[in-house]
Amino acid sequence: MRLDTDPYLERYAARVQGMSASEIRALFSVASRPEIVSFAGGMPNTASLDLEAVEHVVAQLVREEGATALQYGGGQGRVELRELIVEVMRHEGVPAHADDLVMTVGGQQALELIAKCFVDPGDIVIAEGPTYVGGIGALSSHQADVRQVEMDADGMRVDLLEQLLTDLAAQGREPKFVYTVPNHQNPAGVSMSVERRHRLAELAVSHDLLLLEDNPYGLLDFDGRTWPSLRELVPDRVIYVGTMSKTFAPGVRTGWVAAPAPVRDKLILLREAADLCPASFTQMLVERWLTTQPWQDQVKRFRTVYHERAEVMLRALEDEMPEGVEWTVPAGGFYIWLTVPAGIDTSDLLAKAIQHRVAYVPGRGFYADGTGGQQMRLCFSYPPIDRIREGIVRLGELLHTELELVQAVYGGQIPDARERRPDEPGPQLGG
Ligand code: PMP
After folding, report:
1. For the domain that residue 32 is a member of, what is the CATH number?
2. Do 120 and 258 fall within a single domain?
3. The pLDDT of residue 426 is above 50
4. 341-375 confidence digits (pLDDT tens)
5. How many CB atoms lie within 10 A of CB 138?
6. Residue 327 belongs to what domain range?
7. What value does the mean pLDDT take over residues 126-132?
């Protein structure tokens, strides 16, 4: 044993060796102070839930079915809940049968189990660039080689994906799967166009691809629109992940996978190995929420809450950001992806931002290769609406000052963005 650093270092499995908490994570513990406007954590606005209704549902559940709710259940999850989830999916036009589903501890466990199911160390997985930080976390914990494909306002550049597949094939390599968040993507705040979904589905067939479709935000389009799902287009080639975290509450930790039968069977075995079975209590709570409460009205309320916040943030960005700053305009979900001019590094800027009483997530967390130093994710779902402008004003002031500094120091000779430091993995935040 070595006692100078981590005394257990040499005993860890290879997949854990490279894992460490970042300085950025430490900064986020400060960011939760009340004087700071935090656009960092991608958290649903649970304050706009009808908590009295939740209280009623919980009390009724304990009174009427307490013994069952507090007992172990089956590894696939309760059939009663799976049948209701099929209905939830139908609201987006996503086809499924209760037998196809495996309930999981949020969508996050689904991603982890899928990574465990398919990824050996060094296997290639393709994802959007940027992509969900928890997706990178799940893949990296199984030592995937994550390759990212650039996005634009229409989502993943499927033309670049095709190019990457050709390049990989020339090296005799192929990806285990392609991970995508097609609707209101975290962190980019954009959705994949219908045309690209069709193109991706065609590529899946022509290149024998497996797609991982992660869809937490599909019901949170500000205008209530829905898009065709990849599962609908090529069901045999898609593993679909859903969650109640954004349409009900993340605290119930209720997610699911819809997968072709052989994959579903493996996932049931893997989840039994991980935690035996999903929590009966929260599954039954969700069942009652879906059958006795107007859950669709709650989803509408969430949409309104997020739409209002997005509008306030977008207006404030227009008013406060210096020239050269760019951002995406979301049509749903929680996120705006902001790009700052060259010479500013969003990881380095975070400590100053926190001193300035505003927080965001630096862009590097959303890339496996350490790029993203000129980007940041702003989440508008959580802060009180009257504080959003205040936070953007602070961020605007800071960026104005930084830009003057960059001009003074570098003039026209702005250096390239630096690479990620070795102690700087992506932050692991709620959402
Ligand atoms: N996928 C994406 C893209 C997400 O943004 C999140 C949560 N922010 C998840 C999966 C996981 O959410 P949960 O585990 O709460 O279902």
Report:
1. 3.90.1150.10
2. yes
3. no
4. 999 999 999 999 999 999 999 999 999 998 999 99
5. 23
6. 9-49+297-409
7. 97
**Index of the ligand 1 atom closest to the CA of residue 132:** 3
Q: What angle do CA 232, 234, 236 make, to 5 degrees?
A: 110
Task: Return the structure tokens found at 113.
Answer: 């189990």
Number of domains composing the chain: 2
Find the mean pLDDT for residues 112-128.
Answer: 98
Name the residue at shortest CA distance from atom 4 of ligand 1. Answer: 431
Mutate which of 111, 132, 246 for ligand 1? The one with the most ligand atoms within 8 Å of its CB, which is: 132
Residue 55 lies in a domain: no
CATH number at residue 210: 3.40.640.10
411 Cα: distance to centroid of ligand 1 (angstroms): 42
Asked if residue 333 has its Cβ within 6 Å of ligand 1, the reply is no
Instruction: Look at residue 132 and tell me whether its pLDDT is greater than 90.
Output: yes
The answer, yes or no, to whether residue 420 has pLDDT greater than 70, is no
Going by CA atoms, what residue is nearest to atom 7 of ligand 1?
431
Q: Is 186 in the pocket of ligand 1 (CB under 6 A)?
A: yes
- Say how many Å lie between the CA of residue 415 and the centre of ligand 1: 35
Rg, the chain, Cα only: 22
Nearest-atom number in ligand 1 for the CA of 334 is 5
User: Domain check: are 226 and 368 in the same one?
Assistant: no
Cβ neighbours of 173 (radius 10 Å): 14
The whole-number average pLDDT for the span 188-216 is 98
Name the closest-CA residue to atom 6, ligand 1: 431
Measured CA to CA in angstroms, residue 323 lies from 125, 214, 346, 404 at distances of: 37, 35, 17, 12
Q: Which helix (H) or strand (E) is 377 found in, with range?
A: strand 375-379
Q: What is the pLDDT of residues 213-267, one digit of tens each?
A: 999 999 999 999 999 999 999 999 999 999 999 999 999 999 999 999 999 999 9
Verify that 149 and 270 share a domain, yes or no. Answer: yes
Q: Which helix (H) or strand (E) holds 242?
A: strand 238-243
